[in-house]
Amino acid sequence: MDLVNKALHQVLPEKVPALSGADVVCEGFAGVDPKTGRYWGTLTPVVIGQGGDSASDGESFLYPLSAGACRNTPTEVLESTFPLVVDRCELIPDSGGPGRHRGGVGSRTVFRLTTPGIFYATIEKGKIPHWGIFGGKEGLRNYALVHSKKQGEFEVLKNPAVFLDAGDSVSVTAGGGGGYGDPLERDPEAVREDVIEGYVTPEKARRDYGVVMRPGTFEIDRKATSALRKGKARAKAALGLKGK
């Protein structure tokens, strides 16, 4: 579906969004509970950011359409049912692709085993970032990092089983959607709101959107922003990159 969208975006610009995290970022854990002697297992998909489109920003923390049958398992249910602790569940700043309409930001969840067990994953779209269109930039890719006392730290995309000890953890990153349109065309007030919400850092606001925030505040330096955007636009024009 994503390849068809990319092929059609030039002729259906009002219909086709930038790339989202797409297929499920799906991972699970299993083992034998030493307290009960019973086998346990769970699938715990992590949700992605959607791609921006012609009318709006991409949504954050949503499953893609292809995974519409999936539901997020609440942390309280997960921890009370299985020997797992969720150490962190958060949105990732700067993970959504910059654009006139920004890609939705991705999420990161850190799972920690309280008993020995195995970790397995089927994570798609982990090789390259999620593409933007019409000058929009890429969103963060999908991947998982295993933190093991014996094996060290290593990345996982697809694997049948990684054996882990109690206290080992897995950090699963579900990337953000791609951006739609030139980031320099985004309303500076929308960029300011993104910074306030924590979706975009002040550094990325300046670098990608040409919006300069006054140090230590959420105020826009209008004069510096205008000068920076004009300079970036001239540089793009000189390189023939307008709208790319």
SSE order: HEEHEEEEEEEHHH
The neighbouring-strand order within the major sheet is: 3-4-9-6-7
As a whole number of angstroms, the C-alpha radius of gyration is 20 Å
Shape: elongated
In the residues, how many domains can be counted?
2
Low-confidence stretches at least 5 residues in length (pLDDT < 50)?
A: none
Count the beta strands: 9
Work out the helix count. 5
- First and last CA, distance: 23 Å
Structural class: alpha+beta
Approximate helicity band = 10-25%
What's the main sheet like? Answer: 5 strands, antiparallel
Estimate the strand proportion. 15-25%
- Kindly report the average pLDDT value: 91
What does this structure look like?
- The protein is of the alpha+beta class.
- The chain has five helices and nine strands.
- The strands form two sheets. The protein has a five-stranded antiparallel sheet. Strands 2-1-5-8 form a four-stranded antiparallel sheet, with no helix packed on it.
- The chain is elongated, with a radius of gyration of 20 Å.
- 40% of the residues are buried.
- The model has no long low-confidence stretch (mean pLDDT 91).
